[in-house]
Amino acid sequence: MTDQSPPNIRTDIPHSARIWNYWMGGKDNYKIDRTVGDMSLRIDPGIATMATESRRFLMRTVSYVTSTGRMRQFLDIGTGLPTMQNTHEVAQKRAPESKVVYVDNDPAVLAHARALLTSTSDEGVTDYIDRDFHDPDQIIAEARNILNFKKPIAVMFMGVLGHAESVKEQQRIVSTVMDAVPSGSYLIYWDGTTDSDAYVKLCEEYAKTGGAPYIPRSRDEIRAVFDGLEMVDPGFVSITEWHTNEADIEDSEPISAYGGVARKP
To answer: Counting CB atoms within 10 angstroms of each CB, which of 10, 142, 156, 173 has the fewest?
Structure first.
């Protein structure tokens, strides 16, 4: 962690990471976040389900690449506010020597990362890079100080690339990072889709609040991020359908959030 100065946290503008925290039952949010969060729930009640299922998807995918894929290095870009079962906790539980680097540029996330994102094992490493995901070259440069780019790395973009201004920019960000990691690395990625009119409306209304706009993509636009990579079964699916079982989720109906896991050949 580079900058240890106190963060300048705006409490008068809603922030998606804090709203997400509110939907997941967290306490790291402000009145404006709860107000906009409640407004969003009225537009699309399913957004709370998307929030909780996205965390379950993280837990299943990180468990998979740690156990089956033998991953010991993780680059979690756009991590958001720490909640329960964060990437380092899931990975280091299964492989205590795992190294996890979180990337975000929000002051509130930075403040909580310093306090909460610490290794759960003596052998592991957990660190944080204060960078915008729109600058993947700088992220890679700083991550090299912590991770070994000669060995496979699991790269994660979990529901954040809707903040990219275009599909082209989304592709550029992911491909830049994946080009930098070696063969055998994995991409773990999901995002909200345009399947749901209510979700699209929610994102349109959120943009009017002063928060950073979030643009839902079509399934094909999200699926294209995996081009050139080898998809892991069951492929590109709703996040509720990725390696789920009755113990993971009571309702296995697909939701408008799609993604998957893919290996770099």
So the answer is: 10
